[in-house]
Amino acid sequence: MIHSLFLINCSGDIFLEKHWKSVVSQSVCDYFFEAQEKAIDVENVPPVISTPHHYLISIYRDKIFFVSVIQTEVPPLFVIEFLHRVADTFQDYFGECSETAIKDNVVIVYELLEEMLDNGFPLATESNILKELIKPPTILRSVVNSITGSSNVGDTLPTGQLSNIPWRRAGVKYTNNEAYFDVVEEIDAIIDKSGSTVFAEIQGVIDSCIKLSGMPDLSLSFMNPRLLDDVSFHPCIRFKRWESERVLSFIPPDGNFRLISYRVSSQNLVAIPVYVKHMISFKENSSSGRFDVTIGPKQNMGKTVEGVVMTVHMPKAVLNMNLTATQGSYTFDPVTKVLTWDVGKITPQKLPNLKGIVNLQSGAPKPEENPSLNIQFKIQQLAISGLKVNRLDMYGEKYKPFKGVKYITKAGKFQVRT
Amino acid sequence: VSHSLFKSSVDVSGLAETELIFPVAALIVLCFFYFSLFLMDALLCFYHRNEDLKQMLESSKDSAKLDAMKRIVGMIAKGKNASELFPAVVKNVASKNIEIKKLVYVYLMRYAEEQQDLALLSISTFQRALKDPNQLIRASALRVLSSIRVPIIVPIMMLAIKEASSDLSPYVRKNAAHAIQKLYSLDPEQKEMLIEVIEKLLKDRSTLVAGSVVMAFEEVCPDRIDLIHKNYRKLCNLLVDVEEWGQVVIIHMLTRYARTQFVSPWKDDEVVEEYSENNFYESDEEQKEKDRKVKNIYTMDPDHRLLLRNTKPLLQSRNAAVVMAVAQLYWHLAPKSEASIVSKSLVRLLHSNREVQYIVLQNIATMSIQRKGMFEPYLKSFYVRSTDPTMIKTLKLEILTNLANEANISTLLREFQTYVKSQDKQFAAATIQAIGRCATNITEVTDTCLNGLVCLLSNRDEIVVAESVVVIKKLLQTQPAHHGEIIKHMAKLLDNITVPVARASILWLIGEYCERVPKIAPDVLRKTAKSFTTEDDLVKLQILNLGAKLYLTNSKQTKLLTQYVLNLGKYDQSYDIRDRTRFIRQLIVPNEKSGALSKYAKKIFLAQKPAPLLESPFKDRDHFQLGTLSHTLNSRATGYLELSNWPEVAPDPSVRNVDVAESTKEWTGILGMTKKEKPTEKFYSESEEEEDESTNTSSSSRCLESNLHLHCLENCIFRTKTHELLHRMSGKGLAAHYHFSRQPGIFGDHMVSVQVTVTNTTDQKIENIHIKEKKLPPGMRVHEFNPIECLEPAESITVSMGIDFCDSTQMASFQLCTKDDHFNVNIQPPVGELLLPVTMSEKDFKKEQGMLTGMNETSATIAVAPQNSTRLVIIERVVKAANLGVVPSGQDNIHRFAAKTVHSGSLMLVTVELKESSTAQLVINTEKTVIGSVLLRELKPVLSQG
């Protein structure tokens, strides 16, 4: 399936290559570079490229292109999903998936790639198994290793791969047994000029951090499970149980993982927690325009909206902006034409406002369209859909774990058209 | 040095002008000298660096070796050549340090192909590891062995794969399935043998194996659909518990399978719907009859239903590839009414990263053309955000256009208005095309759209205007109505628009409808004739066309103009334009040479032209299976497997029936135990089975039988002693030797296999060599070898026979006959050959030993020659003397061996414990005390002799 993998940085250097079958020459990447040149920006490089002898399927993550070489028919999503899994694993191991991190840990990267694919077919992709095979680097371990000459490769062979619960490693032991669940909801919305909602939906995930000894068998129930319209599960969840009782029953992997991701049905009206008042105008035949934006809280159920950031891609004709912010600070990058306003927390008494003059290129025609505003925000201790965890029960182990649930609502792709 | 040299040369140059050349030459020489020095230096440096890597690899310290290996892997990762280090690296293949070992494996897989001869050095290490008691070591040995692409080892790989495919550990079997594909790509001639292995592995019930073996099936023999029949239901049932990557492969394979085995669930229900709508007034009776007929025609095969039911939960997978696989399965296999359950999950994937979005949107685009209803409820999920990449935007737009209907068009058009103003002009242009398509598809809004597009003609952006012109041209063509106003408006635009396609479109429109704008058309021709020479080729052609059309309809006003244009065209640089000019002139200007055609010039130029169809680029993509690479590229990818059409009549469904008795028997045969019936409701349906298989160590006695396979290979390597069967003197020139080949189960479970080598030492042919007149003790059986028809002089031939010695050392006597002679011969087995080795862990060994004490134990103290006291020598000698399996031992001074007797399968446990002063305690635990004591006697001299 997957023949070879090349990692390419933004300046077009191939800084890592790995082959699972015969060696494919680096020159195959020229086709990729060609496509990259044609594309306007990195986002527009087509993920699937056909070349005379190979097919290139690539993803772009954290300023790195993961370009895989394919020779025969394969579902493209299979490869894409796998490449993302590789990037996730790097992130998990090195804390970041950057060129320097990969270069610094090239041996571990190679060992990981070796374990993840056999003859181009995925072999071990569960982080729990991989971590048993190859221990992630820590400062302490690298110091110890350099003194004792021991290695990062696990000397005991993992049993997880062989068991019927491949996602959990065996022999887990903690002194403090804890289970944390983060219910994170993102609001995707498009708000039109007049402030009415064109489209809005809630995408949620439950990320878990489980540090429990032994083989705990957990079940998590909700107050209002019917809210969840469409759910995707971590393989550990027993589907039948969910179908019949709407309870999440599972033996968890050890450590951090995504338990479920869900979508709240679009029938439910989505409460939009902020509103934006805007006045952006460009005068005909003069090289200036006005910019005036105010953000205010709407239905936020008594919680504060914080971490508010607004980014705007201004039209190309904009030269500079002279604005004053009543709160927070703004920056305007004259090269990329991106305006960023870091607002912070919204206090309903004094609404944050950004106002001023836009300088346009003289002689350039007035921009056709006003730019749309991308808003980010966070609301702690609130799941905007109203989803609530009812209880968590543990079977199979004797001890009493410490349990915690955290709710947070964020803006996803939240866009205000002006 | 250089300085002084240079100086002197300058002095010389001062003496004579002609010698000016000298210093330059000297300089060049110098440069060369230094450059080559530098090169040498660089080379030396390189050489040195590798030299120091070599030294590190040869050092006795693991840490130095590890450092070296890490640096080498770094070189490989960067794509630098490290092949010259091969000899130094390959030596470390047997390193005890697991990380060094792994890195050496990495190196081997990369360079073995280039250094085939040296790579062979490493093979024996893997062969040894293939018999390791630890399943993970066996598996990784198989993995590396099969990844070394050296054609010479094909037979070894083949053997290893066969062995591994019947390994007790599902993990090893999984690796065997992977190795199949590797061997196939190395040597496609092995196909037939590999298919046998695939067939065997397809029967495997482990979820671990299923995905990998189906992958091998798809790669090696995707056309052998018959192999799937018996495994179909099992694969369907296992699917939920298979790992995610395997799920994708299995689902794709089953989709293809189902399309060949079941009849279509579609065709009839559609016919019925149309029928009942159209023929409302038809008599009820007739209607009923039709309905009945339809009902008779289609009932879904339960196996078809099973597949649909078992794949449905996988729509909830976190893996986008799995969700897509199920979606395509439903699309290609489910009744149309059921296919829509996949839309929700596909829409969910749109929240993922851009690459996933890209592929999913492409597939939705194809689906939404054929079945709008599936995605209509999710219309708003395809609304475009200004931050989406352009390729995502255009795909979303495509889908929105496909979904447009009378009900939602007004909302959509309002949305499109926003897009047209987008800063992304490429996208704005695409939106205009989309509006054009909506206008043609939905007649109610054609006028609205047209008006909207005309408004866009006054847009400031040229790309937008140009695109609008092109779309309006197409729209006007489809609308034979009177749009003189619009054409006039466009004619005015001609002064400002510079985009060639748009100009060409306007000119074509004016030419085509010149009778509707009789006043403007000639004027346009006049203007363009002026600018003819500066126009783009595309525009020039349309000017010529316009001229020709006007000449035909309004020759009074335009005759001269047209001739002027034609003259310009005649001397144009472009072939096309010159050709077109010549062609038009002959057609429209009648002269004596022009034939009958010119009479029809008007009909030719001003014929009614069919309106262009505004179609989606995804229209014909559905002939590719959804979710495939070919679908994404819209061209056949290498190795694409066509999805066949539904068969008219379903093939025999009974081929999928599995005889329950047969299948369980097969499995008890391997596991030596009866399987518990799997509870169907259980989620981890594999759990019990898996535990049984993977924790074989605790139940060794039950699993002994299958463990035997592991040791075949080892024993082939230890060639046992050859005994004489018939001396050439007493055999009148026919000589025969035999040895015990230590291969289990060739002739049945209880037979010891014996290889007999017959040699002809005479100078004549010996014919018809066979066995006769067996004189056997009761219970003993012999499986004869096939008669040798003819043995040429000085030739020898080896044949195998099987003898069931009934676990006794009594001799088997028989006659070796030729065509005209017969000789009495006999075979007496050494007790060590009545055994078959068994793999077990130390723990199990001790447990079994504990149960075989008292009278089942015999022991002796023996003297051990000093040179025999190392572990390797002891193992080698003992294993050579008797067919025993080595049990890993935690203590240095205790060596354990295990075997079972061939006939009855009783355990035979041998322990050698080294004591001080070159003695050893030899203990044998077995139920077969007689054999035990004989074995004890035979083993004694083995260790004491030097």
Automatic annotation (TrEMBL), chain A:
Residues 176-417 form the MHD domain. One of its GO terms (biological process) is intracellular protein transport. Keywords: Cytoplasmic vesicle, Golgi apparatus, Membrane, Protein transport, Transport. One of its GO terms (cellular component) is clathrin adaptor complex. InterPro entries: Adaptor_comp_med_subunit, AP2_Mu_C_sf, AP_mu_sigma_su, Clathrin_mu, Clathrin_mu_CS, Longin-like_dom_sf, MHD. Gene3D superfamilies: 3.30.450.60, Mu homology domain, subdomain B. It is a peripheral membrane protein. Its main location: membrane. It is found in: Cytoplasmic vesicle membrane; Golgi apparatus. The keyword Membrane applies. PANTHER family: AP COMPLEX SUBUNIT MU. Belongs to the adaptor complexes medium subunit family. This is AP3M1 protein. It comes from Ciccaba nigrolineata. The lineage of its organism: Eukaryota, Metazoa, Chordata, Craniata, Vertebrata.
UniProtKB/TrEMBL annotation, chain B:
Residues 689-810 form the AP-3 complex subunit beta C-terminal domain. The chain crosses the membrane at residues 20-47, 141-161. GO terms for biological process: intracellular protein transport; vesicle-mediated transport. SUPFAM superfamilies: ARM repeat. It is a peripheral membrane protein. It holds the Pfam family Adaptin_N. Keywords: Cytoplasmic vesicle, Golgi apparatus, Membrane, Phosphoprotein, Protein transport, Transmembrane, Transmembrane helix, Transport. The keyword Iron-sulfur does not apply. Its main location: membrane. Coiled coil: none annotated. One of its GO terms (cellular component) is clathrin-coated vesicle membrane. It is found in: Cytoplasmic vesicle, Clathrin-coated vesicle membrane; Golgi apparatus. Subunit of non-clathrin- and clathrin-associated adaptor protein complex 3 (AP-3) that plays a role in protein sorting in the late-Golgi/trans-Golgi network (TGN) and/or endosomes. The AP complexes mediate both the recruitment of clathrin to membranes and the recognition of sorting signals within the cytosolic tails of transmembrane cargo molecules. AP-3 appears to be involved in the sorting of a subset of transmembrane proteins targeted to lysosomes and lysosome-related organelles. This is AP-3 complex subunit beta. The lineage of its organism: Eukaryota, Metazoa, Chordata, Craniata, Vertebrata.
